[in-house]
Amino acid sequence: MAVQINEGIRRLFQLPELILQSGNRLSEAVLAYETFGTLNTAKDNAILVCHALTGDSHASGSEDGPGWWDGLMGSGKALDTDRYFVICANVLGGCYGSTGPATLDPETGKPYAMNFPTVTIRDMVQAQYHLVKSFGIAKLRSVLGGSMGGMQAFEWGVTYPDMLETLIPIASCGRFSTMGIAYNNVMRQAILNDPDWNDGEYYGKTFPEKGLNLARRIGMITYRSFSLYEERFGRSMVPTADPYAMDSEYQVERYLSYQGEKLVSRFDANSYLFLMKAMDLHDISIGRGDYGETLAQIQAKTLMIGIDSDFLFPASELKQDADFLQRMGKPAVYRELNSIHGHDAFLIEFEQMNEWIKQFLEEGKV
Amino acid sequence: MAVQINEGIRRLFQLPELILQSGNRLSEAVLAYETFGTLNTAKDNAILVCHALTGDSHASGSEDGPGWWDGLMGSGKALDTDRYFVICANVLGGCYGSTGPATLDPETGKPYAMNFPTVTIRDMVQAQYHLVKSFGIAKLRSVLGGSMGGMQAFEWGVTYPDMLETLIPIASCGRFSTMGIAYNNVMRQAILNDPDWNDGEYYGKTFPEKGLNLARRIGMITYRSFSLYEERFGRSMVPTADPYAMDSEYQVERYLSYQGEKLVSRFDANSYLFLMKAMDLHDISIGRGDYGETLAQIQAKTLMIGIDSDFLFPASELKQDADFLQRMGKPAVYRELNSIHGHDAFLIEFEQMNEWIKQFLEEGKV
To answer: Is the pLDDT of residue B321 over 60?
Structure first.
């Protein structure tokens, strides 16, 4: 495993000691972050972008390589870097520069591995809060993200309700579903079953490639739709002398295996475990009353975007949350992406998203 | 692994040498089967029931323990054993008495393991054909089954079109979907990644428990629905001193793990691999023209039953096939089970199925 990071543009932010949701403390932690555009003198043009499970701070591209949300970011786009100052930080527990299980534990001088404390979505958001405050920003124009990034947006809306004007969770949820927990269970088990995982103590030894590869394959199935796989791969086989051989492969299998290999080359297996646990534990209502009461604590204008083909984060759940907020008299709207791409549409369907998000940021409505 | 078989009621049928779809030959193979009810003197009251991936010949229960389709079989039910003679055989490649990878290879005296020839759904059906013929049955009243059992029903309809009056595929397909192949890929990989699998040579050694357990967990996720998991388990945790511990568990995880353990105690890992391959290779049109032309070779009256919450075998695909047959002037009807249970509804929603199947068998229409 060789995590490739654009060292040129990434900066490190030293966090104060954090008291985590679990009650544990984390000291000497850092967040790796990037900024795009310029913070104005009033410091009122800042937007926080939150990344998904295997994402990083490089939301937008430059000479340092393309960013994962280039379709939404840049001159003239929804997140117009001529107007807005966009911040994106690698999450706590990640492996793109922020403190995570691969980081050296200052107490032992060795990687934390499984001794890293469990971090939650709420902890990630607390860390981002300190970063935002360090710029002297009192209020964000928006917090937005897809999938695990949207979970952070939900937490922001409830934890710091007066610090954001708008909130845009995409293909996400205020609490992780049972089905989501089930899929994380099998992805986790895929890693734990790999003898090379070695209770997490693989740093400097053999990386648990097979385990992480399998976990990623499972993930990739859930990120796409039935129709997309049907249309793209159908029943095509990888050319072979004997299609009846037990190791003959369909094109979709080759694709999954390739996606697994790609992730193994860029992501830490223990980070994958910690971030999945953070998703499992995600529920904005923990310690705050019931789910509806908690949701009603959101003060920001909220745009919820669901994806009609999303199997993992059903559009109906986001719509339900938006409807609830409306009934509570809150300024919430719901829009639905029509896409064959499934959950990953939030990384693909930029035309619809640009229009809605641009208008929402400018006018506070769609 | 200890496969438990009701030896008391199961009979063995010695197959002639089979020429498999792959062109390979399989000699000295047997089918383990059971029958329910009595074959009449005209031999025109026989029905063939085909089982799903991890099923067996014990479709209906007796003093030897409950059967997997008791809800549909027995006096007064759709498959009324007072009227019909029902045959159910363990599939070729299975591990409930029929010849499969755990069987001793007559040439070596050792288990076939991965030297077992690849069998297809068509091969399973060919083997069943010989069994049916051995009773002197010229025409079956019906062939029916769910999931992999429905695949066999589809193949029966095309391979022996004049041997069945009616055909009832449930929650199944005439060719396996890309998504299905994708899920089989990760289930297969889960087994292959287990060092105890040992290239299939684990007989008499350590069984690949972790691998098969994980494969089953993945399967169980796809057999149920988002709503069912939500309703049954929600976000409930298994009681623990520290919910933030990395090994804390949600109830749905405990359930999946239990299901994995149950399968490990009753199923052979190599059989699982061979049967998944058979599903992957399933496409009635192979060697027969295009899919529509092939479907049109069905002569039997056909009742296709889809399940509205089935993620793995979408109801829309079955409906599409039924619509196509209707346009071709064939006597085909489509019915849809309304169920929260997902794919597994074919093992659960007996009320609706009983009504439709009973009427279809008696009147040839619903």
So the answer is: yes
| Interface predicted TM-score of the whole assembly (ipTM), two decimals | 0.96
Where do the domains of chain B lie? 4-176+283-363, 180-278
The mean pLDDT value of chain B amounts to 96
DSSP class of residue B34 equals: E
| CATH of span B4-176+283-363 | 3.40.50.1820
CATH fold of A180-278 reads Rna Polymerase Sigma Factor; Chain: A (1.10.1740)
Mutate to test the interface with B, among A179, A196, A258 (most CBs of B within 10 A): A179
CB B164 within 8 A of CB B158: no
pLDDT at A8: 54
Strands A140-146 and A46-50: parallel
Q: From CA A337, how far away is CA A326, in angstroms rounded?
A: 20
Chain B residue nearest residue A247, CA to CA: B277
**Active-site annotation holds for B130:** no
As given in the structure block, the two tokens for residue B89 are: 């055989």
Taking the Cβ of residue A185 and every Cβ of chain B, the question of whether any pair is shorter than 8 Å is answered with yes
Give which of A216, A257, A168 is closest to A53, Cα–Cα: A216
Quote the tokens at residue B178: 């890309």
Structure tokens at B56: 């067996």
Q: Are A338 and A345 in contact (CB under 8 A)?
A: no
Of A186, A193, A253, the CB nearest to B181: A253
Answer yes or no: are the C-beta atoms of B151 and B172 closer than 8 Å: yes
Q: Which residue from A344, A48, A343, A313 is spatially nearest to A167, judged by alpha carbons?
A: A48
Q: Which residue has the tokens 């010229």?
A: B138
CA distance A313 to A174: 10
User: What is the arithmetic mean of pLDDT over B345-351?
Assistant: 97
- Whether A180-278 and A4-176+283-363 are alike in CATH topology: the answer is no
Directed axis angle between helix B269-281 and helix B209-223, to 10°?
A: 40
Q: In what order do the strands lie in the sheet with A85-89?
A: A11-14, A30-36, A85-89, A46-50, A140-146, A164-170, A301-307, A332-337
Mutate to test the interface with A, among B116, B175, B185, B201 (most CBs of A within 10 A): B185
Output the CA torsion B270→B273→B275→B276 (10° steps): 170
Residues in chain B: 366
For residue range A200-210, what is the model confidence (pLDDT) as tens digits? 999 999 999 99
Residues of chain A with pLDDT under 70: 1-8
Q: What Cα–Cα distance (Å) separates residue B231 from each residue in A92, B340, B341?
A: 32, 10, 11
Q: What confidence tens digit (pLDDT) does each residue in A134-148 have?
A: 999 999 999 999 999
- Helix B209-223 to helix A178-192 angle (10° resolution) is 160
Local confidence band at B8 (pLDDT 50, 70, 90 cut-offs): low
Please indicate whether residue B271 is annotated as part of the active site.
no
What pTM value is reported for the model? 0.96
**Widest Cα–Cα separation across chain A:** 68
Known catalytic membership, residue B147: yes
Residue B174 vs residues B126, B193, B299, B321: alpha-carbon distances, Å:
16, 30, 15, 8
Q: Which residues contact A54 (CB under 8 A, 6 or more apart)?
A: A263, A266, A267, A272
Q: What is the DSSP string of A237-301?
A: BPP-S-TTSTT--BHHHHHHHHHHHHHHTT--HHHHHHHHHHHHT-BTTTTTSSHHHHHTT--SE
The shortest CB-CB distance from A246 to any of B24, B114, B189 is to B114
Q: Do A230 and B185 touch (CB under 8 A)?
A: no
Structure tokens at B63: 């003093």
Contact call for B186 and A118, based on CB within 8 A: no
Q: What 3-state class would DSSP assign to B302?
A: strand
Q: Taking each helix axis as running N to C, give the angle between helix A209-223 and helix A178-192, from 0 to 180 degrees, rounded to the nearest 10.
A: 160
The pLDDT, as a whole number, for residue A9 is 80
